[in-house]
Design goal:
Length: 294
């Protein structure tokens, strides 16, 4: 176990949860407020997607990212901003010509996928080291695209959070570190319970954590009802934790979480009950070697 554990809060995500839960943040103001409240509840990092305010659907519009980032920075919150780069990797083959993408395909260039990071320069951004079946579509991140994205992210001083959903993803991330594309010690985020990646079980987390190089930083989370059991398991194995409405809508069985802050507060209680303390944003900046807000 670690003496201090940091909590990441993933405040909205890109799933079709708007309308399924009363408190999913949609507008840039709501997303920024959720991140700020999560920080006040004990989260050191806010993982941020944006949505179209009119429809609630996931968006890659840099205007929304810019407004969220500016609102957080101008609020005085010290929470570490972590912008997603996962959007732009979805592929569904056309029924008649599988070489072409069907409706719902979002594949775009590496430079386009990280354009908001290059402009806004967050301290952290996600880099999904994963090509996999995800539900009914393919989440596509080829090694060449990952290398290009890693180089662009590094050029603005942002630290990539390496999201890994299966053992082979960790192996690829390790190779990218060995090649010098990613600074060491790297930051890994173990994702469990997504169809069709590793399940949210103790055995899966132990296996994944054992593949991560010694000295690297790592966190983990499970989705849906396994969110809080995986908080406890992560702490016991020496990792950091993530919660939030992106991954889970419930505070207890059948009871919706009031907001993201409520999920953070419960995670903080679990961490402390297990004998660890909560790391502050400044402690996280020091541990991860972040450069601070621009």
């Amino acid at each position: 176990m670690r003496e201090k554990v940091f909590v990441t809060c993933a405040v909205t995500g890109a799933a079709d949860t708007v309308g399924k839960h009363p408190a999913i943040p949609v507008t840039p103001e709501e997303i920024a407020t959720a991140a700020i409240e999560a920080g006040e509840a004990g989260a050191a990092i806010a993982h941020i997607h944006v949505r179209d305010p009119a429809t609630g659907k996931p968006s890659r519009d840099i205007r929304y990212y810019r407004e969220v980032v500016e609102r957080i920075r101008e609020s005085g919150s010290r929470i570490v901003i972590n912008l997603t780069c996962g959007a732009g990797g979805r592929y569904l083959p056309d029924k008649n010509d599988p070489k072409q993408g069907a409706a719902g395909t979002t594949i775009t260039t590496p430079a386009d996928r990280v354009s908001h990071v290059l402009e806004l320069k967050p301290e952290v951004c996600s880099l999904d080291v994963a090509t996999m079946n995800m539900g009914e579509h393919v989440f596509m991140n080829t090694p060449g695209h990952l290398r290009e994205m890693a180089q662009l992210i590094r050029s603005v001083g942002t630290k990539p959070e390496l999201e890994v959903f299966d053992g082979g993803h960790v192996r690829l991330a390790n190779r990218m570190v060995e090649e010098g594309l990613l600074e060491s010690p790297a930051l890994y985020q173990v994702v469990l319970g997504v169809a069709w990646g590793m399940p949210a079980t103790s055995e899966a987390m132990m296996y994944m954590s054992q593949q991560i190089p010694k000295g690297a930083h790592w966190a983990a989370f499970g989705i849906s009802r396994m969110q809080f059991p995986m908080v406890a398991q992560t702490v016991l194995l020496g990792g950091h934790v993530r919660v939030g409405l992106e991954d889970n809508l419930y505070i207890d069985k059948g009871v919706y979480a009031k907001n993201n802050a409520a999920l953070v507060e419960k995670a903080v209680r679990i961490v402390r009950l297990l004998g660890a303390e909560i790391a502050s944003p400044e402690e996280v900046r020091k541990e991860l070697g972040l450069r601070g807000n621009p």
